[in-house]
Design goal:
This protein has about 230 residues and is an alpha+beta fold. It has 9 helices and 9 strands. Strands 1-2-4-3 form a 4-stranded antiparallel β-sheet. The model has no long low-confidence stretch (mean pLDDT about 95).
């Protein structure tokens, strides 16, 4: 969507930004990765060559870690992988704020304020409600109600978030039955940790995300916002 990507012999990934905005995203991603690789255990892309609108790095092998793939594994392998995923988020969200600012890391493209959500709710009512059944309208009203009333506090302390880790950015090695690496940090930046947990709720469901708590102790503090 943002880059033209060429993979050479399954050894080298070359990314060419499609436009000026893509160049800015790639430049910011490089700043993020420069910091991240010093704080997380899992393998992430290391830009070996970087210039305006172009980056290359060694190919990271693996297949998407879908919910179905995860649940087919043994309990031992599930525990190991969920722990890997939890530790990644714990390490990412614990990077000192000063280090991020000094590295030139700015806000994540996934960052949303309460005002943003309220504006979205208005747009949904105006544009979608005429096409929805009554029970669907009710579901949306109930979803947004805690935000409208202020019952759900959306305030947070900014941390480094990924903002976009769907299953195809989480690479799984079926031989070792471990996560082999994580790719695409183009949306990463300062934001609400709950955003990352929300993505994992969408990927794997709450029953699996709840199992992350032993390695991601801040889960109880973010789970309500993540659900929203």
């Amino acid at each position: 969507m943002v880059n033209d990507v060429v993979i050479v012999n399954h050894e080298l990934v070359c990314r060419f930004a499609k436009d000026d905005w893509g160049k800015q995203v790639l430049s910011h991603e490089a700043k993020v990765l420069e910091v991240v690789q010093n704080f997380v255990e899992l393998r992430v892309p290391h830009f070996e060559h970087l210039e305006e609108g172009f980056a290359s790095y060694s190919f990271i092998k693996g297949e998407p870690l879908s919910r179905n793939t995860l649940l087919k594994l043994s309990e031992t392998s599930q525990v190991r992988i969920i722990s890997q995923l939890a530790r990644f988020h714990q390490q990412l969200h614990s990077i000192p704020y000063e280090i991020l600012v000094n590295a030139g890391v700015s806000s994540s493209g996934a960052e949303r304020s309460r005002e943003d959500w309220l504006q979205l709710y208005e747009q949904v009512q105006e544009t979608l409600f005429p096409h929805l059944w009554r029970h669907q309208q009710t579901w949306i009203r109930e979803l947004f109600a805690p935000v409208i009333t202020g019952e759900l506090d959306l305030s947070y302390t900014p941390v480094l978030i990924d903002g976009d880790k769907p299953v195809y950015h989480i690479l799984f090695d079926p031989i070792s039955e471990r996560i082999s690496g994580l790719i695409d940090f183009g949306t990463a930046g300062l934001g609400d940790a709950a955003c990352d947990i929300a993505v994992q709720l969408g990927n794997y469901g709450e029953s699996i995300v709840r199992r992350m708590e032993s390695d991601y102790p801040m889960l109880p503090d973010v789970i309500d916002r993540a659900r929203f």
